[in-house]
Amino acid sequence: MYKLGLIGHPIGHSLSPWIHNQLMDQQGIEGKYELLDIHPDEFDEKMKALKQKDLHGFNVTVPYKEKVIPYLDVLDKSAEQLGAVNTVKKTESGWVGYNTDGQGFVHSLRARFPDLFEKGKKALLLGSGGAARGIYEALSRTELDTVDVANRTMIRAEELINQIPVNSQAAAITLEQAMHSVGEYDLVVQTTTVGMSPDINNTILSLEHLTKGTVVSDIVYRPMKTKFLEEAEKRGARLHYGHEMLLQQAVYAFQIWTDTVPEALPLLEKFEQKLKGV
Known about the structure:
Elements: E1 2-8, H1 16-27, E2 31-37, H2 43-50, E3 57-60, E4 74-75, H3 77-82, E5 87-91, E6 94-98, H4 101-112, E7 122-126, H5 130-139, E8 146-151, H6 154-163, E9 172-174, H7 175-181, E10 187-190, E11 215-218, H8 227-234, E12 238-240, H9 242-258, H10 265-276
GO biological process, one term: shikimate metabolic process
GO molecular function: NADP binding; shikimate 3-dehydrogenase (NADP+) activity
Protein name: Shikimate dehydrogenase (NADP(+))
């Protein structure tokens, strides 16, 4: 009987329980996945209490992907390098932290747009938080030549690039610079929570200079088509949705917890129907 969960704040909107219940059904595994909403003022107290719970593992979402690290006993190589964790497994050695964000993102992106991963292609990441770190590292180890990072405060983008050694070229730019140069990129990835429900009318920057055919991705999955993606679509972009990454990174997390090999593709259509309220 697996006992799993998600920590973050706020997380009442999360569909992670639905995903992992589907994966348990698929693999014939009994278990329970619960939401563990922790207010920032209670984080230390709640994390210490969580150590005493009989959990097999849990996911970590905003704003705790970096803050959770001091409470872990071991980090796998990727999580240590990234300084961000989205999956924790209880082992004989204690709590072990992993990061499946980047792996899940690239897998879902490559499945939809294999032509994107050719020599000479350029990517732009918007944001430099916990999710951005995993995506940046994973994209920078693909065939892409350039992965630039834009952030409101450029020093945060510079820190991300300097802390994570990668194979591709990289530069830190401001969001204003990104707005004017967005047409130079083959892939644009929105990695922040801007545009997430209930603030669905917000967008991180204008896409008026976007080039037709650019792949535009938004890791926000509620709403499924954010205002950012709506603007991209109007300008002829090819869209990559946040729920595709969410599903694939969940599959990798589930694999870590259960040592099984679940499949994401059979759940994708059901997940999209769930998001649309069908």
